[in-house]
Amino acid sequence: MRFLFQKNSIEGEVVECGQLVLEAQQGNGVVREHLIKSYTPFILKITSKVSGRYVRMGEDDEVSVGLMAFNEAIDCFDTTKKNSFLSFAETVIKRRLIDYFRKESTFGKKNVPLSSFEQDDDENADGAYYYLEAKQSVEEFKQRSIATDRKEEIILFTQKLNDFGISFQELVAISPKHEDARIRAMEVAGIIAADSDMAVYMVNKKELPLKLLEQKVEISRKTLERQRKYIIAITLILINDFDHLRQYIIKAF
Fold first, then answer.
1. Range of the domain at 195
2. Is residue 194, in this structure, part of any structural domain at all?
3. How far apart are alpha carbons 41 and 53 in whole angstroms?
């Protein structure tokens, strides 16, 4: 029987991966736990790469998928072949994440069978195929996540606007018509958002901190009052970190 010797960079020692995997397959729970724990950074790295963002233990579902896939790879790895266990585990993780993204984005219902994990002479072509699949599935998932986040932001933003007697539908109508006026109003909103006293005043009193503003901006009270709703709306976006609304709503105003 041939075993692959691989360096475990996490612990700085040489580990007989094939032997450890075999022992785990034979029911050694301690060895299995050691493998999963030792290669958790490896799992996080692959999961982050496929997901296209940094993922954290205990916070992201993708990590759970990656950990289960690594455990699955331990069970399915053929220790009689001189193949890299980590390469095999990476393939399993990627394919299980593809399944996860498909499910989350309602993009198809196809499940990759375990038999397809067997490596063959067409490994490069297979890798390219699954890279494209992963890329497409991840993109579908990202777009769905963005749409969901944007919807949640709009709902929360609408609720906050209602507290000030402003409706989401009237935002375009109350936007200053001239670009320079919009820019000045946005600058005022930025000043309020950056000043904790003014931001707290606005949120608590449900009105602009006009006296404080007059000390910091060279804009008449009449103009500030005329643009009150617009300034409040922009300030709410800024102080609540509504990233999607910053990108899509401010540009539209």
1. 164-252
2. yes
3. 15
